[in-house]
Amino acid sequence: EFMQASWDIEEVQAKGIQHLASFVKDKSAFPFLLKCTEVITLAMKTHIDSLDLQVEGCTLLLEILSQALEQGVMMALDESVASCLLHIVRKHLENEEFLSMLCTLLMMVSASEVAAENLRKVGIIPDLLSVLRRFLHNDKICFSCCAVLWSLAGSENNADQAVLASAVPVASAVLQKHLENGVVAESACSALWALSLQGCLTDSDYEPTAALLLDALRMNPERAVLVKNGCLALASLVRLSETAALAILLDSKGSGMELIKDEYHLHFDEPGVAEALCLLMNEMVQYDEVLLDMRSQKMEKLLSKIKLQFPFS
């Protein structure tokens, strides 16, 4: 109430945020702090030129959201809060350090389907892509923004197909740049999977994207989630085009089929990986030429192994 009575006085908002922050370590205060997110974001938007207030507000929101996620509470932030966050992103596009913090906040917010939908509605995707293009070297920003893209592209009511399509080259550029950084590569693979499911790739994208996803699998074989999401992304490409299937068979860095076998043996106790591999192979056998090649590489042996390993799945 104290903050709401004096929106225009920066010092009041700053003191209010600092005072709220003093309750963060008190577990009994958490349900009340949850109700303050709108007040905090509105204070940030109202005094958008004060970087100190932005940093303190963002830090407090990150603390509240972290506790919410730890306790399994989904914070479905409404459209007005999403709009405030977008406004703040646009105002601070040059500030890499603050943007890194802000993108982490957006990633945590987008874990809620409702909040992700509200971020999409206010039109945040082009701004995320601008941030990614500008700070392609920053692994934290790339990780967070690709995770947000994954959530937003997975939204069921995607009317903005053209906007999503413009995310494909950016997500590919992130993956190319951070192939050896497993955390970022995993996030970029997930974004590409969501974009391919939405039908955002064109004919000219299938071959290079398949090659890039295979590179990500080769460089990060130990990361089960990356392997799973990479294979699911490949499966959705193969479903759309034989070109993608042939790109897997004829990859210049070695047979994609051999890579699939290696990945299965590395993660033979991971049902999610086995399921993704089966889904990929199921898509590949729809093409006669590919089927012949898979037979010659004795892929039925691998399928039999998987069937024995997971008889009840």
Automatic annotation (TrEMBL):
Nucleotide-binding found in the keyword field: yes
Single Gene Ontology MF annotation: ATP binding
E.C. code: 2.7.11.1
Enzyme class, first EC level, given as a word: transferase
SUPFAM superfamilies the record matches: ARM repeat
Keyword Transport: no
Key words, A-Z: ATP-binding, Kinase, Nucleotide-binding, Serine/threonine-protein kinase, Transferase
Recorded superkingdom: Eukaryota
Entry protein name: Serine/threonine kinase-like domain-containing protein STKLD1
Taxonomic source organism: Notiomystis cincta
Gene name of this polypeptide: Stkld1_1
